[in-house]
Write a structure and sequence with these properties.
Layout lengths: L3 H12 L2 E2 H18 L9 E4 L2 E3 L1 H7 L4 E2 L12 H14 L4 H10 L1 H6 L12 E2 L1 H13 L1
Antiparallel strand pairs: 1-4, 2-3, 2-5
Amino acid sequence: MATVHDVAAYILQKRGQMSAMKLQKLVYYSQAWSLVWEDHPIFPERIEAWANGPVVRELYEHHRGLFKVSHWTQGVATNLAKEDSETVDAVLEYYGDKSSQWLSDLTHREAPWQDARKGLARDQRSNREITLGSMHAYYSALASN
């Protein structure tokens, strides 16, 4: 199984420089759609429901303080299995041209992030997990529509 760092490296190799927030959201959607289309996660790291949307802490620890990210030395893009790279490619095709704010706003309207943040103030810090089960259930329902 690839790591979240491998997915980040793949995304940046394909799309080039982007904001750290956008990278986080594209990684999130790659995980979500892998659960639906491939019936398995791409990476094992957990996703947390932060105030600005889904965040993988392991990525954040490496891009903290950076607005833009252009490459990812922590991962290897070729570590993704063929089916995983195809999933990420499809995610990039649909979400890749969207702004980081658009992606963040979208995650805020979706049940996995909302459910993980239940009872929290809008800007309250949190490390609550967005579970794979909640992601699979929500995005599977979207896929069937």
